[in-house]
Design a protein that fits this description.
The chain is an alpha+beta fold. It has helices at 4-17, 19-25, 88-100, 128-142; strands spanning 36-40, 49-51, 56-58, 62-65, 71-76, 111-115, 121-125. The chain contains four helices and seven strands; from the N terminus they run H-H-E-E-E-E-E-H-E-E-H. The chain is globular and about 55 Å long.
């Protein structure tokens, strides 16, 4: 199982890492999202969206309004589509953005969009199973850390969170 802290770290880092790239993409065709772009996160305008019911806050890269008025989030990844398919962390990030838009006046979004740098887009359905998976992930992330990390010289130096980790090897490296 993916460490839920990783998922939430990716959510926080994802929006700022691709803001400029997302802005360039606004003018391109939206084959899968199929709607009008109504918001783009450029890191400067507006505050984050809040979902008190879920206890989360965030800002999708884009929000697209469908013909029926519902809004769907679009997560833009600068990398190419992963060979093994959509990683759980990417899907869960889209679920979190869907939860932020779940209580909109015209109804919950039917899906979110995950767009990769190679132009491929995937619809991520927002249904009861997705809500349950997100709820379970949020619950797991809120539990106290249980020490499952296995720091070591083969893993830690390559980890993107090495500098911020409190369990890294060697433990005296602070």
């Amino acid at each position: 199982m993916i460490d839920p802290r990783v998922v939430f770290a990716l959510v926080a880092l994802g929006a700022s890492a691709v803001a400029g790239w997302a802005l360039r993409e606004v003018g391109q065709a939206r084959a899968e999202s199929g709607g009008e772009v109504v918001a783009v996160d450029v890191g400067r305008t507006g505050g984050p969206l809040r979902a008190p019911r879920w206890g989360i806050v965030g800002r999708p890269d884009e929000i697209v309004r469908l013909a029926d008025g519902r809004e769907v989030p679009v997560e833009v990844k600068s990398r190419t589509t992963p060979r093994g398919g959509i990683p759980d962390s990417h899907r869960l990030q889209v679920y979190a953005y869907l939860a932020l838009l779940d209580d909109q006046p015209r109804g919950a979004p039917p899906f979110g969009v995950l767009r990769y740098g190679d132009g491929r887009e995937f619809r991520v359905p927002w249904n009861d199973a997705a809500r349950q998976e997100l709820a379970a992930t949020i619950t797991e992330a809120r539990r106290p850390y249980d020490g499952r990390a296995r720091p070591g010289p083969d893993r830690c130096p390559r980890c993107p969170w090495y500098a911020a980790c409190d369990a890294r090897w060697p433990s005296t490296a602070r």
